[in-house]
Amino acid sequence: MQNKADRLKAARVPERPELDAERQRRLPPGQTLTESFPILHEGRVPEYDLATWDLRIFGEVEEERTFTFTELQELPVTRTVSDIHCVTRWSKFDTPWEGVRFSDLMKEIGVKPGAEYVMIHADPDYETNLKLADLLKDDVLLAWSYDGKPLTAKHGWPLRLVVPEFYFWKSAKWIRGIEFMKQDRPGYWESNGFHNTADPFKEQRFSSDEYYMPEDEWKYMEAD
Ligand SMILES: Nc1nc2c(c(=O)[nH]1)N[C@H]1C(S)=C(S)[C@@H](COP(=O)(O)O)O[C@H]1N2
Ligand SMILES: [Mo]
């Protein structure tokens, strides 16, 4: 998959649209605003039977746990409105999500001392790594709803992560497992030329300065 990062080398700097000062501030460098909701993922959209779907919590925990969808929905429900930023240069403001805060799920879990890193496991065969401290922020959700409706299959039904602080590849769709770790380990894109942290305001797109993201990459993708 190194090719993907290779392919994205060398292109023009995107033009920023006319925006008021507040929106300028909210739009990270090199991003373009979109009203559509692009759809991006590797592989096929998975299908699930909610009766057998579960979320597994494992790794550096006192006790392994699995949650059914119903059990997750019984936890405190939170609604957020967040700006999201994809590394392919689209950003979308004010996206409304509903789900359970990662920090509220954590109240149900005993994490072992020193487990400062998390690997999110998702279908089909997707992983992304984050620091536990970053997942505990108030706007980090395990979401089952977008814009007042259940997530669509393509956007991650029944459950996706939403971590607005980082490029959107960290917001894994179709999540099935949360693994706590003492040491960091790169996920799928993080091992394939993309940045380990992925802060859009620092433009942490790639693991190497040789790479560049074309301005129109996302315009060829499906959206709704
Ligand atoms: N399971 C899974 N989650 C994923 C991906 C993926 O390939 N598989 N792609 C990521 C990327 S690169 C982006 S930009 C967002 C896109 O989410 P969206 O399709 O809802 O816009 O999903 C992220 N979550
Ligand atoms: Mo992405």
TrEMBL record:
Superkingdom to which the source organism belongs: Bacteria
Domain spans labelled Oxidoreductase molybdopterin-binding: 43-189
Comp. bias regions, Basic and acidic residues: 1-25
Region of interest (Disordered), ranges: 1-33
Stated name of the protein: Sulfite oxidase-like oxidoreductase
